[in-house]
Specification:
- By secondary structure, this protein is mainly β.
- It has one helix spanning 62-71; strands spanning 25-30, 35-40, 43-48, 51-60, 78-85, 94-98, 105-107, 112-114, 116-122, 128-131.
- It has a ten-stranded antiparallel β-sheet with strand order 3-2-1-5-4-9-10-6-7-8.
- A hairpin with a 2-residue loop joins β2 (35-40) and β3.
Amino acid sequence: MSGRAGGCAASVPSTRAGGGLQAVVEVYRNRTRRCWSLRVGGRVVGYADAVALESVRFRSSEAARIRAVRTGHRTVHAVAAGELSSAPRSLNAAPLRYRVEEPGFRAGEDGVVVTAAAAAWFEADGSAWVAGGVP
């Protein structure tokens, strides 16, 4: 993962505390920096051009989504949370998208709402992919 002029960190920080269990990392697209922001415990701990997660849950606040649509102000109200992974993107991964205009994360060409997945990949070009999505 390489840094860029937009302010992305050169590497993803370790979330292991003293060799213990891996912490849950929340990932969301930082449109200002044009990269992915990484949060642990509500605090941004780094930025990455690309990142992969496993055992992923997709969460969004419906009230905050409606407020963002009403006011036109961008807010962080939707995140993917899981454990960091180094696995390459699966060949059968489906595109993942989130649009403030409609509730829920959607996967595949047919736009099925997903709330969890076995794995997700967030790429440097801003695209996101998911494998093993669960409605």
